[in-house]
């Protein structure tokens, strides 16, 4: 009589693992949509600021070099696109993950077959989908309501695309990493929102970069936020207006280099700080 043998456990394949990660994206998006107040704030905040700044500074007329035809509304469109990416990536993910951790959600997920990388892919996918809808709404309002001229050259839309994808990746990874050192959602809100708001001001997101002291622009140049705004301005503003940047040019090569470095650094930080259960 043969001895009993243990039944084989479930066999996981790369295709199965990827399918779980994709399914997790759908779950994260549905969970996000159910948070009505968060969703409305995320979608409307950049649009409201663009409308507010455009109306408040409409009396300034033309700004920038003589004959440029640049208005404050034109200048704030790329700025609000950058702000939306930072909001969708860093702020929302940091607060969301910290809240799940504080409420024990991550501890419960640790008892399931879900792997950490699948959870992170779900968060990245949710940020990408919701951030893309937000950016599309912002551009539509800019063109249809404020009559802001949009780029006509396909190359500039291609620039906007890679700047957007790279920027959102950086911000989402930093949001995940930031959440790893926060205790819960209440601590996250108090820590993340003021810090990000201040960094956006000194990085030329809400204030034109040429109004900031040179030493300050140089100091914040080690962070990704200045380069996110500069990349979007390169895509949406005429090429000759690069003279208004702190370095005197849009310099997309440096934008790509800095954001690429931060993407790698963000991935490393997210890997080091993310845990299902917070260390005590």
Total helices: the number is 10
One letter per element, helices H and strands E, the order comes to HHHHHHHHHH
Quantity of strands, as a count? 0
Average per-residue pLDDT, rounded, comes to 85
Q: What overall geometry do the principal axes of the alpha carbons give? A: elongated
Instruction: Give unreliable regions as ranges.
Output: 1-11
Into which percentage range does the β-strand content fall? under 5%
Distance between the termini: 52 Å
Class inferred from helices and paired strands: mainly alpha
Gyration radius (Cα, Å) is 21 Å
Task: Using brief descriptors, characterize the structure shown.
mainly alpha, 280 residues, single chain, 0% strand
Please give a quick description of this structure.
The chain crosses the membrane at residues 38-57, 77-98, 127-150, 162-182, 187-207, 252-274. The protein is built from 10 helices and no strands.
Any overview of this molecule?
It is a single chain. The protein has 280 residues and is mainly α. The protein has one domain. The chain contains ten helices and no strands. It starts with 13 loop residues before the first helix and ends in a 7-residue tail after the last helix. The relative contact order is 0.14.
Give a topology summary.
Layout: H1 14-34, H2 36-56, H3 72-102, H4 105-109, H5 116-144, H6 154-179, H7 185-202, H8 214-220, H9 224-236, H10 252-273
Helix pairs in contact: 1-5, 2-3, 2-5, 3-5, 3-6, 3-7, 3-9, 5-6, 6-9, 6-10, 9-10
């Amino acid at each position: 009589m043969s001895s009993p043998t243990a039944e084989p456990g479930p066999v996981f394949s790369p295709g199965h693992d990827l399918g779980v990660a994709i399914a997790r994206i759908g779950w994260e998006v549905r969970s996000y949509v159910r948070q009505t107040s968060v969703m409305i704030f995320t979608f409307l905040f950049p649009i409201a600021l663009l409308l507010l700044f455009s109306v408040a500074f409409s009396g300034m007329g033309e700004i920038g070099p003589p004959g440029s035809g640049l208005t404050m509304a034109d200048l704030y469109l790329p700025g609000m696109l950058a702000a939306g990416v930072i909001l969708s990536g860093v702020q929302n993910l940091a607060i969301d993950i910290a809240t799940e951790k504080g409420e024990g959600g991550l501890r419960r997920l640790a008892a399931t077959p879900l792997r950490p990388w699948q959870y992170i892919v779900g968060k990245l996918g949710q940020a990408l989908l919701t951030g893309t809808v937000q950016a599309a709404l912002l551009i539509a309002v800019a063109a249809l309501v404020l009559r802001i001229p949009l780029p006509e050259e396909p190359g500039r839309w291609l620039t906007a695309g890679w700047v957007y994808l790279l920027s959102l990746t950086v911000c989402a990874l930093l949001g995940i990493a930031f959440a790893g050192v926060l205790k819960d959602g209440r601590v996250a809100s108090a820590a993340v929102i003021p810090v990000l708001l201040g960094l956006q001001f000194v990085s030329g997101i809400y204030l034109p970069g040429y109004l900031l002291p040179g030493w300050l622009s140089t100091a914040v140049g080690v962070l990704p936020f200045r380069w996110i705004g500069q990349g979007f301005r390169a895509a949406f503003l005429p090429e000759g207006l690069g003279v208004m940047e702190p370095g005197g040019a849009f310099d997309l090569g440096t934008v790509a280099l800095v954001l690429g470095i931060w993407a790698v650094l963000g991935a490393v930080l997210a890997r080091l700080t993310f845990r299902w259960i917070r260390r005590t």
